[in-house]
Structure formats: structure tokens, C-alpha cells
Amino acid sequence: MIDELEVEAGPLARWQVHWCDPRREVSWYAADPVLAGLPTLAEWAHAHGTQLGQPVLLRADG
């Protein structure tokens, strides 16, 4: 399965496709003081109806 796909969208823009896995543990998330008070990624995904395998497009500049 493809984990990441980069697509050129112009001279200054790069897009990446990621597939959501709300079950995935991210070790640095809980240790980050800025993120410490926020829901976990799994909680956020569940609250927003994100499904396993759902594609997410991200541009290089966020």
C-alpha cells in the first residue's frame, strides 16, 4: 500500500496524499508541550468522523 504520494501542482506548490490511520501511535505527540492539552490524534479523528484509509491532501506549506 502507498503511504505517501507527491504530486507536482506548479512551480511553488507540492502536494502530498496521506491516508488516515487513527489507530496509529505518534510517540512525540504526547511529549510536545504545545499539544499536551489537546485531544489525541485518535480522539480528534473520531470526533470529526475521520475514517481509516481516508485520503488527506496536504500542500507543502501546510
Task: Explain what you see.
- The structure is a single chain.
- The chain contains 2 helices and 3 strands.
- The longest helix is centred in the C-terminal third of the chain and has 7 residues, at 41-47.
- The model has no long low-confidence stretch (mean pLDDT 79).
- It is globular, with a radius of gyration of 14 Å.
- Strands 1-2-3 form a 3-stranded antiparallel beta sheet, with no helix packed on it.
- Helices cover 19% and strands 26% of the residues.
Report a brief summary of the structure.
The chain has 62 residues and is of the alpha+beta class. 19% of the residues lie in helices and 26% in strands. The longest helix has 7 residues, at 41-47.
Number of DSSP E strands? 3
Looking across the biggest beta sheet, what order are the strands in? 1-2-3
Order of helices and strands, N to C?
EEHHE
The helical percent reads 10-25%
Uncertain ranges: none
- Rg over CA atoms, rounded to whole Å, is 14 Å
Spell out the blueprint of helices and strands:
Layout: E1 4-8, E2 14-19, H1 27-31, H2 41-47, E3 55-59
Antiparallel strand pairs: 1-2, 2-3
